[in-house]
Design goal:
Layout (H helix, E strand, L loop, with lengths): L6 H8 L3 E7 L4 H16 L5 E5 L4 H11 L7 E6 L2 E7 L5 H8 L2
Parallel strand pairs: 1-2
Antiparallel strand pairs: 1-3, 3-4
Helix pairs in contact: 2-4
Length: 106
C-alpha cells in the first residue's frame, strides 16, 4: 500500500462514488495505532476503495483535503467519502476496524 502523493490522483479519489481516506503522521503514536487499524481493515475489505496521505510529507495535499471536504484537519484522521462528499470522519482512537466496517457498509 503506497501513499497518495499527487493532487490529481487525490482529486480523482475524492470525487469517486466511495473512498476511504486516511491522514497519517508516522511520528505520532496515536497515528501509528490508528494506521494499524486502517491497514487491518483494508486487508479484510479489499473491495473498499482507499488511500492515505502522509501529512508531514504531503502538507499541501493534507491542507487541500481540508479545503475540499470542509473537514477540519486532525491526525490521525479517517474520512469516508460518498459521491464526492464527506459522509463520516473520525480521528484518533475512534478509528477502529469495527468503526470503519460499520461506516463503509452503508
Amino acid at each position: 500500500m503506497e501513499p497518495l502523493e499527487d493532487l490529481e490522483t487525490l482529486d480523482r479519489a475524492l470525487g469517486a462514488r466511495r473512498f476511504l481516506l486516511f491522514k497519517h503522521s508516522p511520528r505520532c503514536g496515536a497515528s501509528r495505532w490508528a494506521f494499524d487499524e486502517f491497514k487491518a481493515f483494508v486487508e479484510a475489505h479489499p473491495d473498499v476503495p482507499h488511500g492515505y496521505v502522509l501529512v508531514r510529507k504531503q502538507r499541501r495535499l493534507s491542507d487541500w483535503i481540508t479545503e475540499v471536504t470542509g473537514v477540519t484537519h486532525a491526525s490521525p484522521q479517517a474520512i469516508w467519502v460518498v459521491d464526492g462528499r464527506p459522509a463520516w470522519d473520525a480521528s484518533h482512537h475512534r478509528i477502529t476496524q469495527d468503526a470503519l466496517a460499520r461506516v463503509t457498509a452503508t
